[in-house]
Amino acid sequence: xxxxxxxxxxxxxxxxxRMLNEIGIKPVAMLHSVEESxxxxxxxxxxxxxxxxxxxxxxxxxxxFEEIEIxxxxxxxxxxxxxxxxxxKLNSVDYLLKPIDAEELENAVAKFKNRQHSLTNNVSFNxxxxxELISPLKKSYKKRFTIKIGQxxxxxxxxxxxxFYSENKATNMHTINNRxxxxxxxxxxxxxxxxxxxxxxxxxxxxxxxxxxxxxxxYSNSRLKIILQTFNxxxxxxxxxxxxxxxxxxx
Length: 251
Known about the structure:
Elements: E1 3-6, H1 10-22, E2 29-31, H2 34-43, E3 49-53, E4 55-56, E5 59-60, H3 64-67, E6 73-78, H4 81-89, E7 94-97, H5 102-119, H6 127-134, E8 144-149, E9 152-157, E10 161-167, E11 170-175, E12 180-183, H7 187-190, E13 199-201, E14 206-209, E15 213-218, E16 224-228, E17 236-238, H8 243-250
Parallel strand pairs: 1-2, 1-3, 3-6, 6-7
Antiparallel strand pairs: 4-5, 8-9, 10-11, 10-14, 11-12, 13-14, 15-16, 16-17
């Protein structure tokens, strides 16, 4: 079975690829924009299945269908659940909300395999209808957090946050002026709200800001230790399974 991932966030695309590898599927391509996808489809045999993000770096993925008659079945991957049901009706196999769960991905692929015969060469999209449905859609990330301190509300821009970390079942943010604040959101919830260009989850416990990294040191068991500008609450270690992706992220 040939599968192509179309996802503009490269760490997310690599994560999807790893999860597919774990169920015995090696993607034939990972594409990151409308333009790149159109060029690829012009020059390659269409795959059996697409894992398709809705919002890409240069536009909506549906724009691909304006240029190319896609003959692949589709599983939508999106952080926008308000659009998921609408997208699902457009002849997709399934939709998965980010962050993608490995078991849900495996179930969606199994669903495709069960329906593969009836789906072959049966993909049809009403582009104008789709545009109307998702025209308000814009990919955006949090620019600030509002923290309550006593009777006051304090606004903290994401540029001033060195890291987010989990401790004693609570989520904290640490800022460049060496202050810690409790926030209501979990690290899992932050995954879809933080820009992947700025923040990376180096372990189950930490998200770090690339602009706050002071030093990166080789650590035991092929791991990496990160030194931030002011954070010294505990050691920040890049878990071994994330080292490769982390190096790609900072490159």
